[in-house]
Amino acid sequence: MSAAIIDGKGFAETLRARVADKVQDFVADAGRQPGLAVVLVGEDPASGVYVRSKGRATEAAGMASFTHRLPADTSQDILLSLVRRLNADPMVDGILVQLPLPQQIDENAVIATIDPNKDVDGFHPVNAGRLASGLDGFVPCTPLGCVMLLKDRLGDLSGKDAVVIGRSNIVGKPMAQLLLAESCTVTIAHSRTRDLPALVRRADIVVAAVGRPEMVKADWIKPGATVIDVGINRVDAGDGKGRLVGDVTFDEVARVAGGITPVPGGVGPMTIAVLLRNTLVAAHRNAGIPLDRDAI
Ligand code: GUN
Fold this sequence. Notes:
CATH architecture of the largest domain: 3-Layer(aba) Sandwich
Number of helices: 10
Largest sheet: 6 strands, parallel
Strand order of the largest sheet: 1-11-8-7-5-6
CATH class of the largest domain: Alpha Beta
Radius of gyration: 19 Å
Bound molecules: guanine
Number of domains: 2
CATH superfamily of the largest domain: NAD(P)-binding Rossmann-like Domain
CATH topology of the largest domain: Rossmann fold
Strand content: 15-25%
Number of strands: 11
């Protein structure tokens, strides 16, 4: 058997086009653009690439992009006062502080200072709590993108056995909550899990979000299972540049799975598309304009 390749890139393009359409309606109704502020502290090259592409995608969708670049030695107080200023700025609907932050800054303190109604990353404890309680709130972009791809491929997810490998606040935990909300039977696996291959072998849905290159092997996968690879790892390719691989050994797993996301071109593009969607939702909420979310 050979797995269907789940085209996250194509799905994300369609989602971005739908968001851009709705942005036009918002501008006509509100008399302003939705605004997204992105804050980058320091010079981490990967973060720099992400922040640039977020800014470009925001503008391409017709939204206002405000990028704040701060030096690596920025104090926590300076960053918190910027976040408070953005909280109070009526042109800013969404705020994203790019992680990781330099070690002198307490990430949790920064996330807790963002207004939960502008927290388009969905990282604020209020939004994590809303998700866990089944209440309306912002949901982290990467896991929400994964669920969109899963529902597009499989339809109703209820009753499916899902294993999420990884327990981060950014992906693993919200992913598990979202799958639970879809009535999956969810197991979260992590570094202390015993006999991970045997656990994964029971799953109809496998989400790999550990950051370990090509860790998930073909003999871990139940034939026909759907495999979502959140990993983006740069490995040595002997050319000085390296190549990107996921957390799943793609070629061999694709021979066993029913569907699989590639790296790159799978989950990655969904993160930015969902960020734009979350910003559009935030703008409607902040402006008091209703939005039919099922239409995007
Ligand atoms: N760093 C890696 N992924 C993310 C993300 O989705 N949001 C933020 N703020 N930082 C990240």
